Amino acid sequence: MKDRLEALRREALAQLQEVADPGRLNDLRVQYLGKKGQLTEVLRGMGGLSAEERPVIGQVANDVRAAIEGVIAEKQAAFDRADTERRLAAETIDVSLPGKAGARGGIHPLTKVTQEIEDIFLGMGYTVAEGPEVETDYFNFEALNLPKNHPARDMQDSFYITDEILLRTHTSPVQIRTMQAANGKTPLKVICPGKVYRRDDDDATHSFMFHQIEGLVVGPNIRMSDLKGTLLQFVQQMYGAQVQIRLRPSFFPFTEPSAEVDVTCTQCGGHGCRMCKHTGWIEILGCGMVHPKVLEHGGYDPKEVSGFAFGMGVERIALLKYDIDDIRHFYNNDLRFLSQFARM
Known about the structure:
By secondary structure, the protein is of the alpha+beta class.
C-alpha cells in the first residue's frame, strides 16, 4: 500500500505540473482528493492492515495529501494572480481625468412656498402648530360648528375610515387642538400647515390630497380690520408691494362674518387678462371672524375674546407665484419640471 501511495503521489504531481487552466486544476483536485478520489480509494484498504502498519501508512497518506494540496494551492494562487493582472490591464483608470459631478437636488416648490409662508408669519409673531392627518369627526367637523347632518358637510366630501374617524379635510382641527391646549391664554397667534384629503377628481386645479395653511388669532378686541391688514401684509410680501387685496362676502360655518380674498392679478397687474378672466382679480383664500361656537369649543369665552381665521391652499399660492397652469405638475415627479426650482 505504501508503494501505491508513492506511485499516486508521483502521478498526481506530474499531472499537476502540466495544468494550464483553473478548470483542469479543479478536476484533478476532485480526481485525487475528492470523496470518491484515488487517494480515498487507497485509504479504504487500511482496514486490512495490522495495528503496527496503520500508523506508518497513515503518515505516508498524510504526506501524499499534503504534497498534492500544496501544489494545487500554488497553482491556484498563480491562476488568481494572472487573473488579477489581466483585469487590472483591462480596467485601467486614468486618475487624471476629471470626475463626473453628481446630480444636485433641490427643495420641492411646495416645500419652498410653505417655508416662505411660514417665514412671513413667523415674522409677524405667529407660531407653527401641527396635528394628526387622521382625525376624529369631532375635531374635523363638530368643534368647527359643523354638527351631524349639517348641510355644509356636503361641501367637503370626505375619506371616512369609520363613522367617527376620517382623513382630515382641512387643517382647521389643529386650531381647535391648539386653542384647547392654550387653556384660555391670549393672545394666540398660530399657523397650521399640513396635508389634507378630499374626494376630488384630479384635474388641473384639484387633487384628492393637497396642502393647506390655516391661520388663527385669538385675543381681546380682535377686529375684521386686523384680519385685512394681516392678509395685505402677507400677499405683498409673497407677491410684491404692488399687489392689493379685496374681501368679498362669503359663507363658512366656522367664521362669521366670512369672506373670500382676491388679489390683483399677478400677470396683468389688475388690468385684465386671460388668467384673471379679464376681471383683474384672482381668488386666493378664505377667511373670517371666528364663530362664537368655535371659540367655545376651543375653551374661550366669546364675550371676552374674539378672533379671526384664514385658510389657504399652498398649491394655489404656488400656482400664482410661479405662473403654473396645472396642479398635477407638483406631483408627477418630472425632473424637467422640478429642476427649474432648484435654481430659485
